[in-house]
Design a protein that fits this description.
The protein is built from 8 helices and 5 strands.
Length: 227
């Protein structure tokens, strides 16, 4: 069985990759160099795909800096030191407009070429930053679109399924599941605003959610932080 895995190099996508492998899928990984300030995640993704023995790993370059509108793709400060209430109050400036819609569209094209009927994405609707394209409603809508927009779907030869195995899990539950699968989280990167050498800042929303998850899981985060 072939599967396309949206692999960012982060904690969630790596756990998703491990789950797909455990289910017996052949791994076809897709990573995006979209002009993000945390480009270190691209190197992590390459290492992770190799570690898991991916059949193929494509790094697709699309420059979303041309549009901007996000602290990840424009000269806008990444929020730091926010508490849970502040994170949940509104959709944060680290939201990249339509990012998962764009990424899943590429995954769909890749899957159709490879004749894969399964796409895995590590979105989460529990411990996350409030992004609209991480919600179950979005995934369901895109899956319906995918089966209307492809040759295989129209001809009735196959039906594409988008898997979101982490969508209802807390960050701590995701980490525990990853440890059960033998995931080495030292390979992963989560920080939105890494310092020199790719060291995580420890204070952006993503770092804080990650650290909270490890604390609640009762295990030590193996990566380095600048604080």
């Amino acid at each position: 069985m072939k599967s396309v895995i949206l692999l960012s190099g982060g904690l969630d996508s790596t756990t998703t990759l491990a789950l797909a492998q455990k289910q017996g899928f052949d791994l076809y990984c897709l990573t995006f160099d979209y002009g993000q300030r945390h480009k270190v995640e691209l190197d992590r993704a390459r290492d992770i795909a190799k570690h898991f023995g991916a059949v193929d790993h494509q790094v697709v370059k699309i420059d979303l800096r041309q549009f901007g509108g996000s602290a990840l793709t424009a000269s806008i400060d990444v929020p730091i030191g926010r508490n849970q209430q502040e994170m949940a109050a509104e959709i944060p400036i680290t939201y990249v407009p339509a990012r998962n819609t764009i990424f899943l569209s590429f995954c769909l094209a890749y899957a159709e070429v490879k004749e894969a009927t399964d796409i895995f994405i590590g979105v989460n609707a529990v411990d996350y930053s409030g992004y609209p394209d991480c919600r179950p409603e979005f995934i369901k809508a895109f899956e319906n679109l995918a089966n209307l927009a492809t040759k295989a779907g129209v001809e009735g030869k196959s039906r594409l399924k988008i898997h979101t195995p982490l969508i209802e899990l807390s960050k701590a539950e995701i980490i525990k599941k990853g440890f059960e699968l033998g995931v080495d989280y030292a390979m992963t990167h989560s920080c939105y605003d890494p310092k020199e050498g790719g060291v995580s800042c420890g204070v952006c929303d993503s770092c804080q959610l990650r650290l909270k998850g490890f604390q609640e899981a009762g295990v030590k985060d193996p990566i380095k932080y600048s604080l």
